[in-house]
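for the recovery benchmark. tokens below, seq after
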């Protein structure tokens, strides 16, 4: 079967690919690598020089770690997580310094939130994906002074480095009209939540339609197996797969796919190298 990849949907956060002719195991490997191996930038640790808010340092540090940082430019500039294992925070090729310094005057009538937009980055090309993300509330007279350091990391180390909140793989559902004459009113009533399908089965006594736009097909499956039995058949194609990725905002969706393929290629090369070394060792022995 001819191999094809079609972009069915692409926006700032999401990408939907229709993948034909590739083995299920291969495409599923991409799905898993997206969550575990694609590097993004996130805050790794922080020093608290002052915190008079009502929130403990540990809780603020946790919130800082979950602030999504735009990482497309960071992948081009900073060393990989493996290269920065023993790096000091002063190493500008590994770490981005982030300073948060905010105080609410005692004379103020109300408090203020410290937001992601209050972060001062040592690298002007790095910024929060969602500037309005709240970090901590400061009442009048309260202040914080924090210096944090962000680096590239991978999802297998911690979820804060995963570039996607959803990475799902599905078989393409295919609805086939076996015999249009057997489609009765009960069948049509059962399918009334799917007007496009009703139009198709009314217009076609026989034939098939791919349900690429449907997220869930359990309702259709119920109708097919009960009141539409012998008239319709629902199958799931093994040759045409749907890969849907919802990004966190750290990376452009297309970059998530590209980086996942790079990471998978690296894994294959390492596995191949290990196999060669093992073969050489066995021959020596």
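predicted aa per position
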């Amino acid at each position: 079967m001819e191999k094809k990849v079609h972009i069915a949907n692409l926006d700032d956060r999401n990408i939907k690919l229709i993948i034909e002719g590739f083995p299920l195991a291969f495409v599923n490997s991409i799905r898993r690598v997206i969550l575990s191996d694609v590097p993004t930038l996130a805050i790794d640790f922080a020093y608290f020089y002052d915190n008079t808010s009502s929130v403990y340092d540990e809780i603020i540090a946790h919130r800082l770690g979950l602030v999504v940082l735009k990482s497309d430019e960071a992948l081009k500039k900073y060393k990989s997580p493996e290269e920065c294992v023993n790096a000091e925070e002063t190493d500008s090729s590994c770490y981005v310094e982030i300073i948060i310094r905010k105080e609410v005057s005692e004379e103020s009538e109300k408090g203020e939130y410290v937001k992601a937009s209050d972060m001062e980055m040592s690298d002007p090309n790095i910024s929060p994906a969602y500037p309005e993300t709240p970090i901590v509330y400061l009442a009048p007279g309260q202040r914080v002074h924090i210096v944090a350091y962000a680096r590239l990391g991978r999802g297998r180390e911690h979820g804060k480095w995963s570039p996607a909140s959803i990475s799902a793989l599905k078989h393409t559902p295919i609805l086939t009209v076996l015999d249009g004459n057997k489609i009765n009113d009960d069948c049509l009533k059962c399918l009334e939540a799917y007007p496009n399908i009703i139009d198709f089965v009314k217009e076609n006594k026989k034939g098939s339609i791919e349900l690429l736009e449907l997220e869930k097909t359990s309702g259709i499956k119920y109708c097919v197996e009960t009141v539409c039995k012998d008239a319709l058949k629902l199958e799931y194609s093994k040759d045409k797969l749907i890969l849907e990725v919802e990004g966190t905002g750290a990376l452009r969706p297309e970059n998530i796919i590209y980086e996942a393929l790079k990471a998978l290629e690296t894994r294959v090369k390492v596995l191949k190298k290990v196999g060669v070394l093992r073969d050489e060792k066995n021959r020596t022995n």
